Amino acid sequence: MDKYMLQLFILSTLILQITTISGKKPICFLSRRIRIYAVNQLPPNSPALLLRCQSGNHDLGYQTLYYPGQEFTFNFCINFRTLFFCHFWWSGKDLSFEVFNNLGEHRRRCDDNNLCYYEVRSDGIYFSKERPPKELKMLYGW
Description:
By secondary structure, this protein is mainly beta.
């Protein structure tokens, strides 16, 4: 009987976990919601920033950020193996990396405010745990 109760609990937890990938706030049951920001802080009048973010289950499609300050944001409820990565293209350069991995360092990186803020500049990608950022750390150079 205990075996069936555990299975029922796990099944009901999975059913009640409502995950929405969009700009809307998802309802997370027994998990945390993480918000990812990708912000264009490239020089004015430079080529547009193109990006594409996805996980194993969700492809958020191509996004184009045309001007400084423009952002793309999405959120999700984490589970045991949540992994999102983004690919960025700008002015003949490209860079792809994990923006969140529940099994890696990104989990701790986003813990404080349940958000990860990535700022794209002409020399690379910067990170902050806050929005607006008080302090930025360079993560990756082009």
